[in-house]
Write a structure and sequence with these properties.
Largest sheet: none
Distance between the termini: 26 Å
Structural class: mainly alpha
Shape: globular
Order of helices and strands: HHHHHHHHHHHHHHHH
Radius of gyration: 23 Å
Helix content: 55-70%
Number of helices: 16
Amino acid sequence: MLSYANTRGLPGGAGASAAKPAQRDTRLDVIRALALITIFINHVPGQMFEHWTSKNFGFSDASEAFVLISGIAIGLAYGRKYTVGNRLSMSMKAVRRAFVLYGAHIACTFTTLAVFALGAWWFHQPDMLEKIAIGPALAEPVKGVMAILTLGHQFGYNNILPLYAALLLMVPGILWLESQSPRLLVMLSIALWFLVGLYQIAPGNMLMDGVWFFNPLSWQLLFVIGIVSMRHVQRGGTIYWNPFLFVAAAGYVILSAFWVTLSWWNIDISFGLLPKVLAGFEKTYLSLPRLLHVLALAYLVVKIPFLSAAARRPVNNPLSVLGRHSLGIFVSGTILAMIAQVLMMGMGESAAMGISLILLGIVIQFGIAYWLDDRDQKKRKQVTAKPQRAKPMLPATPIQAAE
């Protein structure tokens, strides 16, 4: 996702002078990179780094952060361009991107299947093919393939891209509503989130009981909040400082850390009355405690100058580079995590093995990010160096000279 934009209204934003060219706000790239690395670590269970990721210190984890960042990035990429006469092209661009993500998910899924099949054969452990929900797809191969292609069956650790693809399909409607009334959009999004969570409505699975692990009808609220917030800033608004809100956000984050680390899960905050969507901790339906936690963290990052400044790195910083190529890094990180899982199952979950696989996987992802960045730079140079088409009998017009 691109994130070159005027960031007026954000701490340290580049909006002081309209004459200055827009600079890339790398905070999104850096935070997204940290989320991608965290997701990779969490997708390799059984190693020590897993115990130090954000999920162990709060109600939400890197998945919520990734979706919120994605909403903000959509606002940056499409918001200003979603104007009368340009709405159809922007909508089609979002839909095409959704199908790109769908293709990436299918490639990831079948690569995961190949990795586990090879591992089962190499390590003589056929039970590997029962892991991460692979078994039901192999029990009835034809039905299994159809279920995978229609997103009716998703392997474990391979279920974030379907969520994001579904959210991108909602983008045309979200942007249209936002252009009419941001307040109405948020109200409708909250209503949908609440009703879906209350009545447990979600896309179903074809080969197993249950529903999608990430329900897009619930997670759309976090996505919408990201889009609306960025559009508000783009229109000259700001994320206001409010002492009460700041203290409440900080207190909630601290309470959440104690709750998770001290395992206070036996405390019933529903009082026997509130539904799970308001008083539970379900990830599928993005229950309110999880939603509030990621929003509180986001507010603190924006309003604490040190945190906001720390996230603003040069464009050539390794984290900036990694975060710029989120799809490529997410796909490669998923495949590397699946390979690591197979190796740990086949060779044993030793501490040294876990540390080595995680560090090697992160190094490989940075290498891929730099390769993707170099490839993109070469493409831009080729476009810039494209020779002009000569018109020997006529002087070049300004339009021709720009081609």
